[in-house]
Amino acid sequence: MTVRIRLARGGTKKRPYYRIVAADSRNARDGRFIEKVGSYNPLLPDDNDQRIVLDEERIRHYLGHGAQVSDRVARFLDRAGILPGATRQRGTGKRAAAIAAAKAKAEAEAAGA
Description:
Blueprint: E1 3-12, E2 15-24, E3 35-40, E4 52-54, H1 56-64, E5 68-69, H2 71-80, H3 94-112
């Protein structure tokens, strides 16, 4: 059983609310989950501390047992300091190539300095 920490959508039409859940990767997005480990309310302002709520202890438990995280949840965990460097850049187009080139250049400068 592969466990993923991902978002499960709730709320009504045009009023999204997300639960951050640990779920079997084979289950539906909004279907059965193992445990709720946080919430995300995109309608709240960025500076509100209720916008992203995480249960750090349980998230670390699942990560310690090999759980994978979705791209969006990886950004949340990176910002919270739970999983530093977990933010991933998606895509295969010109922009992704430019980002990869800039990242390689920055790493080369850091290594040379």
